[in-house]
Amino acid sequence: xxxxxxxxxxxxxxxxxxxxxxxxxxxxxxxxxxxxxxxxxxxxxxxxxxxxxxxxxxxxxxxxxxxxxxxxxxxxxxxxxxxxxxxxxxxxxxxxxxxxxxxxxxxxxxxxxxxxxxxxxxxxxxxxxxxxxxxxxxxxxxxxxxxxxxxxxxxxxxxxxxxxxxxxxxxxxxxxxxxxxxxxxxxxxxxxxxxxxxxxxxxxxxxxxxxxxxxxxxxxxxxxxxxxxxxxxxxxxxxxxxxxxxxxxxxxxxxxxxxxxxxxxxxxxxxxxxxxxxxxxxxxxxxxxxxxxxxxxxxxxxxxxxxxxxxxxxxxxxxxxxxxxxxxxxxxxxxxxxxxxxxxxxxxxxxxxxxxxxxxxxxxxxxxxxxxxxxxxxxxxxxxxxxxxxxxxxxxxxxxxxxxxxxxxxxxxxxxxxxx
Length: 420
Description:
By secondary structure, the protein is mainly α. It has one domain: Na+/H+ antiporter like fold (Up-down Bundle), CATH 1.20.1530.20. The protein has 15 helices and no strands. Helix 3 (59-80) runs antiparallel to helix 6 (155-170) and helix 12 (317-338) runs parallel beside helix 15.
């Protein structure tokens, strides 16, 4: 069996299972990603001639498939958010992106340097790829489908969805900082810092936001206000248009050297703001969600095989400790501290801090960085091992806890608002 044969088989089985499994595990402390990882691991361990995807030799392929999954997920996340963008309305996500993301990078880099005894460049890269939360694997804690009510999202789901949508673009500067530092060499070389701040932080973020706003405004006008009926796409209710919006925004931003992930999320939020009460948002969201589920099932199936065949046998206790500390200590503490003084209740702050899910975004960023710098070649295998294990740990722990925790939080919220 060739790799392409295995890919087609995985996509076929994944598509069928993606339609069935969510309904089977809806009320169980399980998640769809957990089952796909387990299935991929089981197939890899069977005495069958099934090739296993290795992210090292197959790096370019892994980069582009994870990239596709991410941008589709970011469009769906932006379309699902009902709350208009604003400083006060989005106070929770701003805290999570402005404080939690950089603090997580610093803390994880320090962990990698101390526990793994790595130089600063690979330690910073590991921290940068593991810092962003994931919009793909967070289905249990994301907001649901679009509605016409601005305030029907609870703070936990809203904050986690908006955080994942924003920080998958804003983590890019930290990844590029690791690449730039490695290229500059060890020691105290700081010539790269000025260019990094001006270009990779300020310039590329600004381009991503501007492209997102412009594309969102243009597409919103086309969807809902175009004078020729043939161009007013909302009247045709075709969901695949979401892919057109996604790829256009991403492609324009990347051609202009901006952050395409950020542009896609801003585009989705701007389209959402163009006409909040229209049912076309639900059609677009449902289509992106279906494509996302298919791609996620496919990727997790292959990741499960890699974990069983290569990553877990090569994992050291030091690498495992870094992943455990990130998921169980760093994110909860940093997330909780960043929300002190917010308007959220104590239960909401704890849950938001705990559910910083790692996933497909980390795989993309690592594949991207390794493809743009040869300075990490000596640590590539260890980087893939630690990142894959951390994703596995996050999928298992967060997947098992998400359903019961979120349901209990919903019950407590309903009790607190019920009049005596």
